[in-house]
Structure formats: structure tokens, C-alpha cells
Amino acid sequence: MLKMKHLLSILLILTFSFQGYSQKKGKKKPIPKTKITAVQEGGPTIEMKDEKIMPDTLQIQKGKKYVFLVDVSEFSGQGNTVEAGNDDNSEKAELKRNFPKENLEIITINKYTYVLFENKQTLDITGNGNSFQAFAYWSGKIDDKVQIKEGKRMATEFVAEQLKTKKESSYVINTRKYKKEVASLLGKNKVTSKSKEVMKELLSGYSLPFPDIEADNVPVFQQGTAKLKTLESYFLKKKGVRVPLKSVSFNNEGFPLIITYYEDEGKNKSKQELIYKDGMLTKIIKADQTTSSINYDDNKMIFTENIGDANETTVFWLENSKLLQKSYTLMTDDKFSYMNTFTEEKFENNCISYSINNVVWSYNCGGPNNKFPYIHTYTSYQNKEVLQFRKSKIEKKNDRTYDKYYSEAERADQNDNYKLWGTFHLDDFNLVDSFNFTKDGTAKTIKIDYTCYE
Question: Which domain of life is it from (predicted)?
Fold first, then answer.
């Protein structure tokens, strides 16, 4: 199950000073200063560098509406001061989406900078060792002052206040939507035959013999029909040395009861205990005593878990014989709503798409799991561009042997040149007995031992 971990960033030092001045003939007025400071709370001490960092100077002319997104520390001084039109910056994307007709000039500042405005005001974003996270807005009119606000998020709300309009960031809107959807899922307990089908498919994933089995390997592991009692997988090294990977014990219905995972060195990593009531999985208790509670709504299986500063709700269901899921991770404090995450899988043209916050991150594509040769492609994306393309093939050599190949193609439009990567060997019960493969130029063997109920 996908777990999205959230860490709240601590602002060690936040200082933002605003200076305004005007001039008259023969007399200079004093420069007023305003400082906003957030004091460090419970964070680690960071030793500041002694070397001087020369600030940049940025001159701003009247006539446009300007928004400044300031995120500066002594460690972010590399590169350019101004980054224009970078849609990877979520706050920029929010501003463009919410104010398409305002023709805002959006400027990101990530280096110590003096900003000089034509109306004689300045923003002083300098000071070795200081960190600045804030927004600033100027209407571009000589008589209007520059407005500032501390923070890195909710730029839309800040700009809307200056423009005297009502706009909200998408993550604020989505928080209300997601909370409503989660509320409609919780508290239900409608167990049907469809509920049990979903549960069995989910548990088959928990019962796989070693961690992180990729989707393109799963068809080989679904051939077995025996009712398992225990399962132990391990790397088999020279002289018969075993390095454990995973162990599972099962109840007499063949459902996993206790699952233990191991580190690379064979040390105990984590453990999960699965609790059932009337034949249905109701709870998973982890080694750290965190608990996933489970309820059912006909063809849906719903997991809920508190993961520190957030609550996670994950829904599983079957579609075209494939187990799909969607997950809501919602911060307990709404002021951190920008950290909320919604992930979703969809079945499209024999592919499973995976999205985070409605942006597609990957596609897993393959045919029926029981037909060989089984061809599978995996494509991941970054900024809507293909980040990785991988194509594999599993061939049934005989009733007990399956060979796995990887294509050398790096794009979908390239010709395949398959290279043998590994071989699966099955036992008399059609369970994978061993898996031989080559990784980083080294031959490796994973062995699996089983005991079964009669």
C-alpha cells in the first residue's frame, strides 16, 4: 500500500524587512522599517556561514501588477535571482490559474536581493544567515504601497485580498471536497460477497513471497493453488547461507496472519499482524503499534490510519479483475492543507494509470495475467514528459520454468531487443520455488520455502 509521508518544515529564522521612503527638496525624511520575525521553536541549531554573500539589486518599474514569491536562505543563493513562468512552482501555477485576466508579473526571488520600486519604496531581503519566506504585491501605481505577508503558501488568497476579490487556492477547495468524500466512506460496514472478493485479492498481494515484487512479475506468482501455512523467502548465498527477506504465517483459510519483513542484512525490519472477525480483515497492527482500521461498503474495502500529523484513508476495489485504489492523506491542521495528497489509480485500455493530485505519474500496462508470453510496459512521467520507459516479457519455457526478459528499448517507438534477465522455477504445487536473476553484474538467487495445510 502506498504510504505518503509528510514532514512539516520548520522555519528556523524568518525575517522580512520593509523600507519606504520619500524625498522633498532640501530635507530627507527618516526611513521607516517594519520587521516580521518568527522565532525558532524546537528545531535544530544550524551553524551559519561567516562568508559574505553579495545581494542582487532588482529595479521594478510602474505600470504592471507585480507578485513576488520570496523563498531565500543563505543556502539558496545559487543560480538566478528571478525565475519567470516556472509552472513547477505550485504557487505560480495557482496564481496563473486563478487570475488569468490580471496579467500578473510573477517574480520568484531566491537570493538575497534589494528590490527597488519606481515609487521609491524598497524591499530589503538581505542578511547573511537569515531566511525569508514571504509574498509581496505591488499594483504598479505610484501612489500604492507594496504589501507583504509571511509564508510560502496561499499566495492566491493574499493576491485576492489586494485585488478585493474572492479566490481560493485549489488545495483549499480540494480539502473541503476530500473531507466530504472521506466522511461518506467512514462508518459504513456493509459486507457482501463482493467485499470478500476485494479482500482476497488484496491479501494475495500481502502473501507474495518477497517485498517489492513489481507488477510485471506478479503473473508468475499467481499460479499456485495450495493452501499455505507458512512462507519464508531468503537470498541463498554461497555455502548455503540464508539472508531472510520476508516471512508470512497463514490461518487455515489461507489468509496471512503475521508478516515479517527484513533488512538487506537479514535483520528484522518490521512486522504486521492482521486481525480478522467473521472471516473478514478488520485491522492491521504494525510493529510501531500504529493501526489500520478496515471497513467495507459492498465492493469497496476502506482503510483508515493516523500517520502522525495526518489521517490517511485508502479505498480498494476490483475493476476488470484488477485491484485499484485511491487514497486521501489529509493534514489534521487545515493551515497545512497545501500538503494534502490525493492519489488515484484508473483502468484504461489494459493499463493502470497512477495519479498524484490529478497529475499522471505512471502507467502500468499488461495483458491477462494467465496468458504467456506476458508483455508489460511501465512508463513514468515528470512535468508531463516521459521520465522512464521499461518493457519486459515473461515466457513460459515449460510447466515449471518461466524466463523473464527486458527490452533494451528506452522509448515506446523503439524496436525491442530482449535480453534474458532471470528465471523462475516452480514446484509441484505451481508455487515459485526459486528465482535466479542478475543484478549489477552479479548472479543472485532468491529461494522460497513453504508449508501447507492438508
Answer: Bacteria
